[in-house]
Amino acid sequence: MKLLKEKIVNEGIVLNENVLKVDSFINHQMDPVLMKEIGKEFAERFKDDKVSKILTIESSGIAPAIMAGLEMGVQVIFARKRKSLTLTENLYTSSVYSFTKQESNDITVSKQYIEPGENVLIIDDFLANGQAALGLAEIVQQAKANISGIGVLIEKSFQPGAEELLAKGYRLESLARIASLNNKQVEFAPERTYQNI
Ligand code: 5GP
């Protein structure tokens, strides 16, 4: 996605060869114009998938997910990173190891918000090792719903998450793919294309 890649080039800060900082438009300050376009892009890419709900994880997945939900006309749920103190028996739970914080969190979603048989699109800001996406996928499976696909804003293709999700058979749509962050430079990878079989 051209607009996102331009933002990354102009405003992204390569912290080291593994981490890209995007605080000025995704992770701290948020750019509503960019988020709106991201919502449209996900809606276009998943337009044939009968998506009935979007699932993301707090906090940076919420902005793109809500814009996609607005475009697609579906409700958006965010998984919480802490267990709520009440009604724990009514929660789907999965454990996620955080790449950036280097700690594990239980993520939870209230059972009432995912119906069995729903088509759920998972959205997150970054894809690194795939832990967040896999944790969200596990929650969809616990709910006996279908995973329409996984949409991420930025895939770091040099880390193993993308391969792992594809190996599990998930459809993955990444709006920007980064091949390398070496030498403080962002090098993009080509868009992934799916062939109709
Ligand atoms: P994963 O679970 O795929 O290993 O990592 C995804 C999560 O880690 C994302 O939700 C995102 O918050 C965070 N993350 C991973 N890599 C980066 C990065 O390079 N920059 C930023 N800002 N966040 C990242």
Distance between the termini: 24 Å
Radius of gyration: 16 Å
Main β-sheet: number of strands, strand sense, barrel status?
6 strands, mixed
**Number of contiguous helices:** 6
Overall average pLDDT? 94
How many separate structural domains?
A: 1
* CATH-assigned fold name: Rossmann fold
State the helical fraction: 25-40%
CATH class: Alpha Beta
Bound molecules: guanosine-5'-monophosphate
Question: Which CATH-level-2 architecture?
Answer: 3-Layer(aba) Sandwich
What fraction of residues sit in β-strands?
Answer: 25-35%
Cross-sheet strand order for the largest sheet:
4-3-7-8-9-10
Structure classification: alpha/beta
Query: How many beta strands in the DSSP annotation?
Result: 10
Name the overall outline.
globular
What would you note in describing this structure?
The protein is an alpha/beta fold. The chain has one domain: Rossmann fold (3-Layer(aba) Sandwich), CATH 3.40.50.2020. Helix content is 30%, strand content 31%. The chain has helices spanning 2-11, 23-27, 32-45, 62-72, 131-142, 161-167; strands at 13-14, 20-21, 53-57, 75-79, 91-98, 103-110, 119-127, 146-156, 172-180, 187-188. The strands form three sheets. It has a six-stranded mixed sheet, with helices on both faces. It has a two-stranded antiparallel ribbon with strand order 1-2. Strands 5-6 form a two-stranded antiparallel sheet.
